[in-house]
Specification:
The chain contains 21 helices and 25 strands. It starts with a strand and ends in an 11-residue tail after the last strand. β11, α9 and β12 form a beta-alpha-beta unit. It folds into 3 domains: about 100 residues, Roll (Urease, subunit C, domain 1); about 300 residues, Metal-dependent hydrolases (TIM Barrel); about 100 residues, no CATH class.
Length: about 575
C-alpha cells in the first residue's frame, strides 16, 4: 500500500454522522480520507503524523451563511471564521454581493454592502479590484486565488437586479417580462459557472448606506419564480431567503411556490424577535411544507444575535447625542479624556437620542438589555448581571453607570445588547430551533457587520455552550451538535464530499481540546484595506485545523499552507 500523506492518531473521533464517538486513527492521501481504524493503529507509513492524544477529532465545520464576497478577493484568510474550526464557507447570502456588476454600478453595490452588512465603504473601495463584470468572470477571478479554507459563492439577487435593470432595479420598480428573462438567463449561466445557489432579501432591515431599502425588497412573484425556474433548468442549486413576514400567509405561499417551481431546497432566516413566539408560526409553516415534500429549512443561530457597543466599535449607547458624536474623529485616548470630563458627561446624559438610533436605544431598555462582555463571553447572561441591575445594586442612575463602564479598560470595554433570540432572557428558543428536524445552523455573517456584530464565533458557542457549559437549562449531546455544523450544513447546500469523517470524504478535520475550548473576547483590529477597523474574535482550544489534508492552523496560529479553493459545482 502506498504511503499516506497524513495520519491523525489516537483521537476521540466524532465523525459528523451523529452516532457517537470512538477512539481511532484517520489516514489521508491526496486530500481525501482513505483509511479509518477503530481497532488499533493504522500501520501504513505516513509523511506526517498529528497526535490527537484523546482530543476530539471532528470534521471541519461548514458555515453556510457568510459575507466574505469582498474579503475573498483581497485576502487569503477568511477570519474570523478560520479561528473557529471552519474549513468551508458559503458567501453571497441575503441577496448582496459584487457580481454581476457594470462599471457604472460599483458605488451602488458598495453602498448596498456597506449598509446591509456594515462593511466600511472605504475598505471596499480600496480592496475591490473589480476585475470582473459577469458572475462567471467573478468565479474565474476567485478560482485563481488560494485560501485557508474552501469558499463557495451564490448569485445575489440585488446585484443581478441592478445589473439588468440599472437604476430602475435599485429603485425597486417592477421587473418587466424582458427583465425577468434576462435575469433568469444570467442565473442559469451563474449556475453553470459553479454557483451554489441564488439568494434574496425581503426585509426592511436591509438598507444601503444612504438609507434606501434593498433593491429586492418588493420583487414580485413572477420575478422570483423566474429565478426559481432558472434553478430548475440548471438542475441543481439552493435558495436562501430572508423576509419580514409581515403578511405570513401571502409571503410564505410565494416562497413555497419558488420551491415547488424549482424543485430545489430553500433555507429561510429564522430568529426570535421582540415577540417571543412569532418565530414558531414561521417554523410551523416550514414544517408543514417539509412534511408535504418540499425541502424547506429554517436557518437558525445557537445564541442571541446581538450588537456590540463601545468607544472602539461603530456604535455606543450614546451614539447620535451631539456632545458625544462631536468627539467621534478624535483618537480613542483623547476621546476617553474628553468623556471623563464631568461637565461633558452631564451634557451627554441630558441630551436626546437621535431618531435614527431610537429603535436600538429602546431595545437597550434603560440598561436591562445591556451586559458587559467578559472573557470568555457569556452569551446567555442573567438579567441580574445586566448593567441596569448592577447600577441599581450600587444605588446609581443606570445611564450614568453605563457611561462610566464605557470608559473602563482605557475605552476598550465592549457592551452586549441582544436584539434577537433573547426576548425571554434565556436561550430556550435556540435549543428548540437547533433540535428541530427542519432547521439548519447559519446566520453567523462572517465577514460582515464588522464594527457592530461578531457572530462568526457562533460555531464555537454551539459546541461549548450547548455541549458543555450551559447552566440555565438543558444542553445538547455533543455528537448531535457536531453533526449540526458539519454533515447537516454541508448537505443543506448540497456539498456531499465533506462534513463527515468517512473514507472517500474530503480530509477537512478539526482536532479540539474540548475541555479548554472557548471563544475569546471580541476586539477591534485595523486590518481591512485602507486601515479599516473590524471586530475580530479568536478562540482557544482548536489544537489543529486541517483542510484537504494540509495543516492550516496550530493552536490558533496560521501555517503557510493555503489549500482552500473556490468550490465550483
Amino acid at each position: 500500500m502506498s504511503q499516506l500523506d497524513l495520519i491523525v492518531r489516537g483521537g476521540r473521533v466524532i465523525d459528523g454522522t451523529g452516532v457517537g464517538e470512538f477512539t481511532g486513527d484517520i489516514g489521508v492521501r491526496d486530500g481525501r480520507i482513505v483509511e479509518i481504524s477503530a481497532n488499533g493503529p493504522i500501520t501504513t507509513q505516513a509523511k506526517q503524523t498529528v497526535t490527537a492524544d484523546g482530543a476530539i477529532v471532528a470534521p471541519g465545520f461548514v458555515d453556510i451563511h457568510t459575507h466574505y464576497d469582498g474579503q475573498a478577493t483581497w485576502s487569503n484568510r477568511m477570519s474570523p471564521s478560520s479561528h473557529h474550526g471552519v474549513t468551508s464557507v458559503v458567501m453571497g447570502n441575503c441577496g448582496v454581493g459584487f457580481a454581476p456588476v457594470r462599471p457604472t454600478d460599483h458605488d451602488l453595490l458598495i453602498e448596498l454592502m456597506e449598509g446591509v452588512e456594515d462593511i466600511p465603504g472605504v475598505a471596499l473601495n480600496e480592496g475591490l479590484s473589480w476585475d470582473w463584470e459577469s458572475f462567471p468572470d467573478y468565479m474565474d477571478y476567485l478560482s485563481k486565488r488560494q485560501f485557508d479554507m474552501d469558499v463557495g459563492a451564490q448569485i445575489p439577487h440585488a446585484a443581478l437586479r441592478v445589473y439588468v435593470m440599472g437604476q430602475r432595479g435599485a429603485d425597486r420598480e417592477p421587473a418587466t417580462p424582458e427583465d425577468i428573462a434576462q435575469m433568469r438567463q444570467l442565473t442559469v449561466e451563474a449556475m453553470a459557472a459553479g454557483a451554489l445557489g441564488f439568494t434574496s432579501s425581503r426585509t426592511l432591515n436591509h438598507r444601503t448606506s444612504r438609507g434606501e431599502p434593498t433593491p429586492t425588497l418588493q420583487a414580485e412573484v413572477d420575478e422570483l419564480l423566474g429565478m426559481a425556474s432558472a434553478l430548475k433548468t440548471a438542475g441543481r442549486g439552493v435558495m436562501e431567503m430572508i423576509s419580514d413576514f409581515d403578511d405570513l400567509e401571502g409571503e410564505f405561499s410565494m416562497l413555497k411556490q419558488m420551491v415547488d417551481t424549482s424543485g430545489r431546497p430553500m433555507s429561510i432566516s429564522l430568529a426570535q424577535g421582540l415577540s417571543p413566539h412569532g418565530w414558531r408560526k414561521i417554523l410551523d409553516k416550514i414544517e408543514q411544507a417539509s412534511d408535504s415534500g418540499l425541502v424547506m429549512r429554517g436557518q437558525v443561530a445557537p445564541r442571541p444575535i446581538g450588537i456590540l457597543l463601545g468607544l472602539s466599535a461603530t456604535l455606543a449607547p450614546f451614539t447620535t447625542r451631539p456632545s458625544f458624536t462631536e468627539l467621534g474623529q478624535l483618537p480613542l485616548a483623547e476621546r476617553c479624556l474628553a468623556l471623563a470630563d464631568p461637565a461633558r458627561k452631564a451634557r451627554i446624559l441630558a441630551e436626546e437620542t437621535g431618531r435614527g438610533f431610537a429603535r436600538l436605544y429602546h431595545l437597550m431598555d434603560e440598561g436591562r438589555k445591556i451586559w458587559l462582555m467578559t472573557d470568555p463571553p457569556n452569551y446567555e447572561p442573567d438579567p441580574k448581571d445586566s448593567l441596569h441591575a448592577q447600577a441599581t445594586q450600587r444605588g446609581l442612575e443606570p445611564w450614568s453607570y453605563i457611561y462610566d463602564v464605557l470608559l473602563q479598560d482605557n475605552g476598550l470595554s465592549l457592551l452586549y445588547t441582544p436584539f434577537a433570540n433573547y426576548a425571554e432572557d434565556n436561550l430556550d428558543c435556540c435549543r428548540d430551533m437547533i433540535l428541530h428536524k427542519d432547521t439548519v445552523m447559519g446566520l453567523g455573517d462572517g465577514g460582515a457587520h464588522v464594527g457592530t456584530i461578531c457572530d462568526a464565533s457562533f460555531i464555537t458557542t454551539l459546541i461549548t455552550h450547548w455541549g458543555r457549559d450551559r447552566t440555565r437549562g438543558e444542553g445538547i449531546d455533543l455528537s448531535t451538535l457536531i453533526k449540526c455544523q458539519t454533515q447537516d450544513t454541508a448537505r443543506a447546500v448540497e456539498l456531499f464530499d465533506r462534513g463527515t469523517l468517512q473514507v472517500g470524504m474530503k480530509a477537512d478535520i478539526n482536532i479540539i481540546d474540548f475541555d479548554n475550548l472557548h471563544a475569546g473576547l471580541p476586539k477591534i483590529v485595523n486590518d481591512l484595506p485602507a486601515g479599516g477597523a473590524r471586530l475580530q474574535q479568536e478562540a482557544r482550544g482548536y489544537e489543529t485545523t486541517i483542510v484537504a489534508g494540509e495543516v492550516t492552523y496550530i493552536r490558533g496560529e496560521a501555517t503557510d499552507a493555503l489549500p482552500g479553493r473556490l468550490i465550483r459545482k
